[in-house]
Amino acid sequence: MFQNSGLSLDQAPPISVVLRFFLAGSLWGIAAGAWLLLQGPSALNPAAPQGLILTHLLTLGVMLSFMLGALFQMLPVLAGIALKDPVTLAIRSQWPILFGTLLLLCAFGSGSAVLYFLAALLLGMGLLPVAWRMLQRLYRLRDHSASSRGMGFALYNLLLLVLLGFWMVALLGGWTFRGDLLALRQVHLGLGLLGWIALLIVSVSFQVIEMFYVTPPYPKSYARCLPSLVTGLLTLEFVAVLNLPAMQPWIESLAALLVGIHALLTLRRLSQRQRPLADATVWFWRIGMGTLATAMLLWIVGDFTTLSIAWSETLYTLYAAFALSVVFAMAYKIVPFLTWFHLNAQGYFNAPMMHEVIHPRYAIRHLSIHLTTLFTALFAAWTTPELWHLTGALLLFSFAWIALAIYRAWHRYLEVQASGEKFEFPSMT
Amino acid sequence: MQISNYMTHEHRACDAVFAEAEKAAAAGDWAEAEKKFLEFSNDTLTHFKKEEEELFPAFEAKTGSSEGPTQVMRFEHEQVRGLIGKMAEAVEKQDRDAYLSLAESMMILLQQHNMKEEQMLYAMCDRVLPPEEKSTLIDEMEKVEL
């Protein structure tokens, strides 16, 4: 019966599954910082290989890693879906994605058709099976929440995004001449930034904001409809690009407007929270939602006019600040909690408390690094382009900071397992 | 009334008292913190008792399974009970940092537990139990005391 209904209340996947993705995401972030440090303003040119490399370091490298790790952790909790053999599934997706991303970056740099082909092959091998399996399980689910439904739509957009990526690779590699690369690029951006990254964060926020910070819930019908509306619009955009290009900016703007409204609504929810302490994670969420709302406004303007370089760089910066702020907010909750939770569930008397794994002061210091990075980037966009080098150094420092926190948590976990005294729970089965 | 509505309402009420206790502890008002923490513990433990003595057995009788979801929920209740004990110690020692740290763990543990119940278990209970049995069950749960 439980199998048929999709109900599975198994415990969370092993901690290594989540931490391996989070650590990989942090290392990609260090690489992105190093790239910006070396390249400076040229890494901000979206048409140049340097710009493509920075964007994909942040999206395929950082965001995909953190989001896959979060999905492995949250699917059992938010949707009751325990993926079978998560360790093997994680390894089988992580390594091909890692090498596929590396090859894609090299392909952007060299323009080599062979590298494009190999990158697409590896990324497909890593991404498609895991996304398909998650989507399939979500599709079969009988009792959906707004979050689980939204996750399903985000994964659908990811699959569409990957398929579109293959098409673009085929154009870049010279295997096909069908399709306008610039128009496809616009849909690729919409699907990736709005349909996948923003929508997954929106879906998670439906539950996480209310539950972690004790806020009033999002309106039910709003939470039920938003992911399908955004996805519907982005799918429509795909069709419009091929048949009715004049409609594209209107459709995309509507999707951006919906995401922007959600950011404002979340800011309102955070101001109504009953939990009194404004720890670093609350501020990361606030910065994330503030920058998302502003980024969406600029996105809409950019759909109808050509943004100046400074405004384009501002949009890029604000969107990146949104995505990274939420990643940090989630990581500072999830990593210490999982370390405590798994050790406690295994019966270790000396399981460290959350503050002993990562102290709130450590996260507050990261918040100041993060804000400095954001303001330096905005200054670089508007005043001194050379400041992009400094922004790169700060980004590198920011990710090194969180990588160290994740590494220490993992080290602490192994240390307790090796030396801790354990209480044996009666068998669960 | 649906099982989901009744039980979810209790979850939210516990969250609100929990937040008040945390607010008092953060401000160093230990008398208020102790009062609110006691209220939170009593409400939470009564809620668990309702589930373990009324709701879960009814669900198990209907589905013919005493393993699986209800077993996991009982296990998680034990984890929460353990954490309540540690938080009570922190209140007694008026140890702000320990209390806030434990409160953070408690909040996430409890919320992920609540999510599983609200998204799946209660929905299943509402589906498998006939309406008259549900209202009798809610009446019985109303009578449960710690």
Structure, described:
The complex is a heterodimer of chains A (429) and B (146). Chain A has 429 residues and is mainly α. Helix content of chain A is 80%, strand content 0%. In chain A, helix 8 (220-243) runs antiparallel to helix 9. The radius of gyration of chain A is 21 Å and the shape is globular. Chain A starts with a helix and ends in a 10-residue tail after the last helix. Chain B has helices at 3-27, 30-63, 69-93, 96-128, 131-143. In chain B, helix 2 packs antiparallel against helix 5 (131-143) and helix 3 packs antiparallel against helix 4. The two termini of chain B are 23 Å apart. The interface between A and B is large, with 36 and 41 residues.
Could you say what the CATH architecture of the domain at 277-416 in chain A is? Answer: Up-down Bundle
The CATH architecture assignment of chain B turns out to be Up-down Bundle
Sheet with the most strands of chain A?
none
Structural class of chain A: mainly alpha
What is the CATH T-level topology of the domain at 277-416 in chain A? Answer: Four Helix Bundle (Hemerythrin (Met), subunit A)
> How many distinct folded domains of chain B?
1
The sequence of SSEs of chain B as H and E is HHHHH
Looking at CATH, which topology of chain B would you report? Four Helix Bundle (Hemerythrin (Met), subunit A)
Percent of residues in helices of chain A comes to over 70%
